[in-house]
Design a protein that fits this description.
Blueprint: E1 7-11, H1 16-27, E2 32-34, H2 46-56, E3 60-63, H3 71-76, H4 78-98, E4 103-107, H5 136-156, E5 160-165, E6 167-169, H6 182-196, E7 200-204, E8 210-211, E9 213-215, H7 216-229, E10 236-238, E11 244-245, H8 246-257, E12 262-266, H9 281-287, H10 295-309
Parallel strand pairs: 1-2, 1-3, 3-4, 4-5, 5-10, 6-9, 7-12
Antiparallel strand pairs: 8-11
Helix pairs in contact: 1-7, 2-4, 4-5, 6-8, 6-10, 8-10
């Protein structure tokens, strides 16, 4: 890939993951990176997409834009999470095909896997059941991009690839307690409880579910490596291959932050999917990706970032 001569369009390039992907592209010498902003280009609207592609004519389109959130946000907005994510992806790929974009990189989600997928998740397990109910609308909307990518490759020879990252976290994440994912939400809860002298924090579920977490910088590197080196039809997991219970995660974060109070579990709230951990071997085999950051190091970096930036405008939420 001759990055200095390639024009890349990154939807969601101003967001949490997108900023790191743009940074990785720049580090490789890519000089033409287009980052459409939602206020200027509503990706749910056909005319906006057509205008964007007419003006930019990208060599690669990396589709990261998504409407996302934790369990609470998914439960509150299932219709929005389904429609917005589906319509953005389906229309983008269709018009990228019509404009003869040479390569389309679609980002899926770990939420696309069935609720009771055996651990570690392999890509062959993707269709063996229905996703966990609280995030099924989001997961299925993103999963349709895999169907579309494979169908367009078969009929039109369109080069679309599909990547499945595990739960992301890191500097610049969404620390809003209502819409954020588990790691930033726990960091904020623990830190505020410590500073306010509160004796406990209350957490959703019973702490037994497991998750796998991928540091955002590793995820960005994986996406750019796939854009460079992978042109196949099969979905590819992006992960570390390490499973951590939510209970252990909370204790890890509390220790890093210095919160020594009581951890109370609200079992009236849902746990979400029982277990999550992927087999990352296909990514290593096909485009040489291996994660560099372990969970403890990643949490330490994320806490340090939050402490330094939490009073900045927008530090709690990602636009």
């Amino acid at each position: 890939m001759d990055w200095p001569s390639v024009r890349v369009l990154v939807t969601g390039g101003g967001g949490f993951l997108g900023r790191f992907v743009v940074g990785k592209l720049r580090a490789r010498g890519c000089q033409e990176i287009v980052v459409p902003r939602s206020k200027d280009c509503d990706l749910r609207e056909r005319d906006a997409i057509v205008r964007m592609l007419q003006e930019t004519r990208p060599d690669i389109l990396i589709h990261l834009a998504a409407v996302v959130g934790g369990i609470g946000a998914n439960r509150a907005n299932p219709g929005r999470f389904f429609y917005d994510n589906a319509i953005m992806g389906l229309q983008l790929m269709e018009y990228a095909r019509q404009f003869n974009v040479p390569k389309f990189v679609a980002l899926g989600t770990i939420c696309a896997y069935p609720k009771f997928t055996p651990v570690p998740f392999t890509e062959a397990d993707l269709w063996n059941g229905y996703p966990e109910e609280t995030n099924a609308p989001y997961g299925l909307a993103k999963k349709m991009l895999l169907v579309q990518a494979q169908a367009y490759r078969a009929q039109f020879g369109f080069n679309a690839i599909y990547l499945l990252p595990t739960n992301l976290y890191g500097p610049g994440d969404n620390f809003d307690l209502e819409t954020g994912h588990v790691i930033p939400a726990i960091i904020r809860k623990c830190l505020e409880a410590k500073e306010e002298g509160r004796p406990e924090i209350v957490l959703w579920g019973d702490g037994s579910p497991t998750r796998e977490f991928l540091y955002v910088e590793d995820a960005a590197e994986a996406i750019v490596l796939a854009a460079e080196r992978y042109d196949g039809p099969e979905p590819v997991n992006l992960g570390v291959g390490e499973e951590t219970s939510i209970r252990d995660l909370v204790q890890m974060v509390a220790s890093e932050v210095g919160f020594t109070g009581r951890l109370t579990w609200d079992t009236s709230k849902p746990n979400g999917q029982p277990r999550r951990c992927v087999d990352p071997s296909r990514a290593k085999e096909l485009f040489g990706f291996e994660a560099r950051y372990g969970l403890r190091d990643g949490i330490s970096k994320t806490v340090s970032w939050f402490l330094a930036h939490r009073h900045d405008a927008g530090a709690f939420t990602t636009p």
